[in-house]
Design a protein that fits this description.
globular, 45% helix, Nucleotidyltransferase, domain 5, five-stranded mixed β-sheet, alpha/beta, 13 helices, single chain
Protein backbone atom coordinates (compact mmCIF):
# COMPACT_ATOMS: atom_id res chain seq x y z
CA UNK A 1 0.00 0.00 0.00
CA UNK A 2 1.17 3.53 -0.84
CA UNK A 3 0.08 6.59 1.14
CA UNK A 4 0.13 10.04 -0.46
CA UNK A 5 -0.34 13.02 1.82
CA UNK A 6 -0.90 16.69 1.05
CA UNK A 7 -0.23 18.42 4.35
CA UNK A 8 -1.01 21.94 5.44
CA UNK A 9 -0.94 23.53 8.87
CA UNK A 10 -4.71 23.20 9.21
CA UNK A 11 -5.33 19.73 7.74
CA UNK A 12 -3.70 16.85 5.88
CA UNK A 13 -5.43 14.95 3.09
CA UNK A 14 -4.37 11.29 2.77
CA UNK A 15 -5.03 8.85 -0.07
CA UNK A 16 -4.09 5.17 -0.08
CA UNK A 17 -3.28 3.30 -3.30
CA UNK A 18 -2.95 -0.48 -3.69
CA UNK A 19 -0.10 -2.21 -5.55
CA UNK A 20 -1.92 -1.57 -8.83
CA UNK A 21 -2.08 2.17 -8.05
CA UNK A 22 -5.83 2.14 -7.51
CA UNK A 23 -7.39 4.15 -4.70
CA UNK A 24 -8.37 2.17 -1.58
CA UNK A 25 -9.47 4.94 0.75
CA UNK A 26 -8.98 8.57 1.60
CA UNK A 27 -8.98 10.27 4.97
CA UNK A 28 -7.99 13.49 6.71
CA UNK A 29 -6.04 14.40 9.84
CA UNK A 30 -5.39 17.69 11.57
CA UNK A 31 -2.41 19.67 10.31
CA UNK A 32 1.08 18.18 10.73
CA UNK A 33 3.45 21.11 10.45
CA UNK A 34 6.71 19.89 12.05
CA UNK A 35 8.12 23.40 12.23
CA UNK A 36 5.44 24.25 14.81
CA UNK A 37 4.35 20.99 16.46
CA UNK A 38 6.38 18.73 18.76
CA UNK A 39 7.01 15.05 18.03
CA UNK A 40 4.39 14.15 20.63
CA UNK A 41 1.79 16.42 19.05
CA UNK A 42 2.52 15.03 15.59
CA UNK A 43 2.22 11.47 16.83
CA UNK A 44 -1.05 12.15 18.65
CA UNK A 45 -2.64 13.66 15.55
CA UNK A 46 -1.67 10.61 13.51
CA UNK A 47 -2.67 7.87 15.92
CA UNK A 48 -6.07 9.48 16.41
CA UNK A 49 -6.93 8.55 12.82
CA UNK A 50 -8.56 5.10 12.73
CA UNK A 51 -8.17 4.47 8.99
CA UNK A 52 -4.41 5.09 9.03
CA UNK A 53 -3.71 3.11 12.15
CA UNK A 54 -5.65 -0.03 11.32
CA UNK A 55 -3.61 -0.46 8.12
CA UNK A 56 -0.28 0.93 9.36
CA UNK A 57 1.61 -2.37 8.98
CA UNK A 58 0.46 -2.75 5.37
CA UNK A 59 1.96 0.55 4.19
CA UNK A 60 5.24 0.14 2.30
CA UNK A 61 5.71 3.70 1.03
CA UNK A 62 4.66 7.20 2.14
CA UNK A 63 4.99 10.34 0.04
CA UNK A 64 4.31 13.26 2.36
CA UNK A 65 4.28 16.81 0.99
CA UNK A 66 3.82 19.26 3.82
CA UNK A 67 3.98 22.79 5.17
CA UNK A 68 7.00 23.26 7.42
CA UNK A 69 8.96 20.45 5.73
CA UNK A 70 11.29 22.63 3.68
CA UNK A 71 14.27 22.49 6.06
CA UNK A 72 16.19 19.51 7.39
CA UNK A 73 15.33 19.49 11.11
CA UNK A 74 11.50 19.66 10.84
CA UNK A 75 11.66 17.28 7.89
CA UNK A 76 13.63 14.73 9.93
CA UNK A 77 11.30 15.16 12.91
CA UNK A 78 8.21 14.28 10.90
CA UNK A 79 9.97 11.41 9.11
CA UNK A 80 10.91 9.95 12.50
CA UNK A 81 7.30 10.07 13.71
CA UNK A 82 5.99 8.54 10.49
CA UNK A 83 8.55 5.75 10.64
CA UNK A 84 7.49 4.93 14.19
CA UNK A 85 3.83 4.59 13.20
CA UNK A 86 4.44 2.95 9.81
CA UNK A 87 7.39 0.62 10.55
CA UNK A 88 7.39 -1.16 7.17
CA UNK A 89 7.21 1.95 5.01
CA UNK A 90 9.81 3.78 3.02
CA UNK A 91 9.29 7.41 4.04
CA UNK A 92 9.73 10.41 1.75
CA UNK A 93 8.99 13.81 3.30
CA UNK A 94 9.19 16.90 1.09
CA UNK A 95 7.91 20.43 1.35
CA UNK A 96 4.43 21.26 0.16
CA UNK A 97 5.86 23.29 -2.73
CA UNK A 98 7.10 20.13 -4.43
CA UNK A 99 3.68 18.52 -4.11
CA UNK A 100 2.17 21.70 -5.53
CA UNK A 101 4.51 21.51 -8.53
CA UNK A 102 3.63 17.87 -9.25
CA UNK A 103 -0.08 18.62 -8.88
CA UNK A 104 -0.07 21.80 -10.99
CA UNK A 105 2.35 21.19 -13.84
CA UNK A 106 3.01 17.46 -13.54
CA UNK A 107 6.72 18.24 -13.19
CA UNK A 108 6.95 20.52 -16.24
CA UNK A 109 8.58 23.96 -16.14
CA UNK A 110 6.35 26.46 -14.31
CA UNK A 111 6.01 29.01 -11.55
CA UNK A 112 3.83 27.53 -8.81
CA UNK A 113 2.34 29.46 -5.89
CA UNK A 114 0.54 28.38 -2.73
CA UNK A 115 -2.09 30.58 -1.09
CA UNK A 116 -3.68 28.59 1.73
CA UNK A 117 -3.22 28.87 5.48
CA UNK A 118 0.35 29.84 4.57
CA UNK A 119 1.87 31.03 1.30
CA UNK A 120 4.92 30.30 -0.81
CA UNK A 121 6.14 30.12 -4.40
CA UNK A 122 8.80 28.55 -6.56
CA UNK A 123 10.11 28.31 -10.10
CA UNK A 124 10.43 24.70 -11.25
CA UNK A 125 12.80 24.21 -14.17
CA UNK A 126 11.54 20.73 -15.01
CA UNK A 127 13.95 18.99 -12.65
CA UNK A 128 14.58 21.20 -9.65
CA UNK A 129 12.80 23.85 -7.57
CA UNK A 130 14.24 27.36 -7.24
CA UNK A 131 12.89 29.85 -4.69
CA UNK A 132 13.62 33.55 -4.79
CA UNK A 133 13.59 33.56 -0.98
CA UNK A 134 13.11 30.90 1.69
CA UNK A 135 9.92 31.29 3.70
CA UNK A 136 10.30 32.36 7.33
CA UNK A 137 6.73 31.42 8.16
CA UNK A 138 3.60 33.08 9.41
CA UNK A 139 5.15 35.72 11.70
CA UNK A 140 7.51 37.31 9.17
CA UNK A 141 6.17 36.27 5.76
CA UNK A 142 3.20 34.30 4.34
CA UNK A 143 1.92 37.24 2.32
CA UNK A 144 -1.73 36.91 1.16
CA UNK A 145 -2.21 33.68 3.10
CA UNK A 146 -5.10 32.79 5.37
CA UNK A 147 -3.11 33.70 8.47
CA UNK A 148 -1.96 36.96 6.84
CA UNK A 149 -5.56 38.01 6.20
CA UNK A 150 -6.62 36.78 9.64
CA UNK A 151 -4.08 39.12 11.22
CA UNK A 152 -5.21 42.01 9.04
CA UNK A 153 -8.88 41.49 9.97
CA UNK A 154 -8.17 41.35 13.70
CA UNK A 155 -5.91 44.41 13.48
CA UNK A 156 -8.50 46.38 11.54
CA UNK A 157 -11.21 45.40 14.01
CA UNK A 158 -9.19 46.49 17.03
CA UNK A 159 -7.85 49.67 15.40
CA UNK A 160 -11.43 50.47 14.29
CA UNK A 161 -10.46 50.61 10.63
CA UNK A 162 -13.12 48.05 9.72
CA UNK A 163 -16.50 49.48 8.56
CA UNK A 164 -18.99 49.36 11.42
CA UNK A 165 -21.49 46.95 9.84
CA UNK A 166 -18.73 44.50 8.93
CA UNK A 167 -17.18 44.87 12.38
CA UNK A 168 -20.49 43.99 14.04
CA UNK A 169 -20.82 40.87 11.90
CA UNK A 170 -17.21 39.94 12.63
CA UNK A 171 -17.80 40.23 16.39
CA UNK A 172 -20.93 38.08 16.16
CA UNK A 173 -19.15 35.31 14.28
CA UNK A 174 -15.97 35.08 16.35
CA UNK A 175 -14.86 35.37 19.95
CA UNK A 176 -12.78 38.53 19.75
CA UNK A 177 -12.07 38.87 23.46
CA UNK A 178 -8.45 40.01 23.78
CA UNK A 179 -7.55 37.28 26.29
CA UNK A 180 -9.05 34.61 24.02
CA UNK A 181 -7.07 35.85 21.03
CA UNK A 182 -3.82 35.99 23.01
CA UNK A 183 -4.39 32.53 24.47
CA UNK A 184 -4.78 31.03 20.99
CA UNK A 185 -1.78 32.91 19.63
CA UNK A 186 0.66 32.33 22.45
CA UNK A 187 -0.46 29.20 24.29
CA UNK A 188 -2.12 26.84 21.80
CA UNK A 189 -0.58 24.43 19.28
CA UNK A 190 -1.17 26.07 15.89
CA UNK A 191 -1.45 29.88 15.99
CA UNK A 192 -1.10 30.09 12.21
CA UNK A 193 -4.11 27.82 11.68
CA UNK A 194 -6.04 29.80 14.31
CA UNK A 195 -5.38 33.02 12.41
CA UNK A 196 -6.24 31.34 9.13
CA UNK A 197 -9.80 30.53 10.23
CA UNK A 198 -10.64 34.25 10.29
CA UNK A 199 -9.94 34.49 6.56
CA UNK A 200 -13.17 32.56 5.90
CA UNK A 201 -14.99 35.71 6.97
CA UNK A 202 -13.76 37.53 3.86
CA UNK A 203 -15.94 35.39 1.63
CA UNK A 204 -19.13 36.61 3.34
CA UNK A 205 -18.26 40.21 2.48
CA UNK A 206 -16.17 39.82 -0.66
CA UNK A 207 -18.29 42.35 -2.57
CA UNK A 208 -17.70 45.09 0.01
CA UNK A 209 -15.18 47.76 -1.10
CA UNK A 210 -13.29 47.41 2.19
CA UNK A 211 -12.84 43.66 1.71
CA UNK A 212 -11.96 43.93 -1.97
CA UNK A 213 -9.25 46.45 -1.12
CA UNK A 214 -7.90 44.28 1.70
CA UNK A 215 -7.70 41.20 -0.55
CA UNK A 216 -6.23 43.14 -3.47
CA UNK A 217 -3.52 44.68 -1.32
CA UNK A 218 -2.52 41.26 0.01
CA UNK A 219 -2.35 39.80 -3.48
CA UNK A 220 -0.29 42.77 -4.68
CA UNK A 221 2.19 42.19 -1.86
CA UNK A 222 2.45 38.52 -2.79
CA UNK A 223 2.98 39.29 -6.48
CA UNK A 224 5.71 41.81 -5.74
CA UNK A 225 7.61 39.69 -3.22
CA UNK A 226 6.93 36.14 -4.38
CA UNK A 227 6.18 36.11 -8.12
CA UNK A 228 7.71 39.05 -9.98
CA UNK A 229 11.30 38.33 -8.83
CA UNK A 230 11.39 35.17 -10.99
CA UNK A 231 13.03 36.10 -14.33
CA UNK A 232 10.73 33.85 -16.38
CA UNK A 233 7.49 35.08 -14.83
CA UNK A 234 6.17 36.24 -18.21
CA UNK A 235 7.47 33.21 -20.12
CA UNK A 236 6.29 30.10 -18.28
CA UNK A 237 2.86 28.98 -16.97
CA UNK A 238 1.90 30.37 -13.56
CA UNK A 239 -0.25 28.22 -11.27
CA UNK A 240 -1.88 28.90 -7.91
CA UNK A 241 -2.92 26.31 -5.35
CA UNK A 242 -4.94 26.67 -2.14
CA UNK A 243 -8.26 27.84 -0.77
CA UNK A 244 -7.43 31.57 -0.67
CA UNK A 245 -6.45 31.56 -4.35
CA UNK A 246 -9.44 29.41 -5.28
CA UNK A 247 -12.19 31.34 -3.50
CA UNK A 248 -10.87 34.77 -4.51
CA UNK A 249 -9.75 33.86 -8.01
CA UNK A 250 -11.43 36.86 -9.72
CA UNK A 251 -9.53 39.30 -7.48
CA UNK A 252 -6.33 37.30 -7.89
CA UNK A 253 -6.60 37.40 -11.69
CA UNK A 254 -7.45 41.10 -11.58
CA UNK A 255 -4.30 41.82 -9.58
CA UNK A 256 -2.16 39.50 -11.70
CA UNK A 257 -3.23 41.29 -14.88
CA UNK A 258 -1.93 44.58 -13.45
CA UNK A 259 1.53 43.02 -13.49
CA UNK A 260 1.11 41.41 -16.91
CA UNK A 261 0.80 37.93 -15.41
CA UNK A 262 -1.59 35.34 -16.83
CA UNK A 263 -2.65 32.60 -14.42
CA UNK A 264 -2.93 29.23 -16.18
CA UNK A 265 -4.90 27.45 -13.45
CA UNK A 266 -6.06 27.70 -9.84
CA UNK A 267 -6.37 24.44 -7.91
CA UNK A 268 -8.18 24.25 -4.60
CA UNK A 269 -6.89 20.87 -3.41
CA UNK A 270 -3.86 19.27 -5.08
CA UNK A 271 -4.36 15.77 -3.66
CA UNK A 272 -6.33 14.37 -6.62
CA UNK A 273 -3.71 15.53 -9.09
CA UNK A 274 -0.99 14.09 -6.87
CA UNK A 275 -2.67 10.71 -7.29
CA UNK A 276 -2.36 10.97 -11.07
CA UNK A 277 1.29 11.99 -10.76
CA UNK A 278 2.18 9.05 -8.51
CA UNK A 279 0.15 6.59 -10.57
CA UNK A 280 2.53 7.39 -13.41
CA UNK A 281 5.77 7.98 -11.50
CA UNK A 282 5.82 5.83 -8.33
Amino acid sequence: MILIADGGSTKVDWIALDDEKQEIFRTRTKGLNPAILTESQLETRLINNFELNKKADQVNAIYFYGAGCGTSKPNAKLAKVLQKIFPNAKIKVAEDMLGAVYAASGGAEAIVCILGTGSNSCYYDGQKMHQNVLSLGYILMDEASGNYFGKKLIQDYYYKRMPEAIAQDFAQKYNLDADEIKRNLYQEDSPNAYLGQFAEFMFDHKEEPYMHQLISKGFEEFMETRVLPYPKVHEVPVYFIGSIAYFFRPVLEEVASKYGITIKDVIRRPIDRLIAYHQQNS
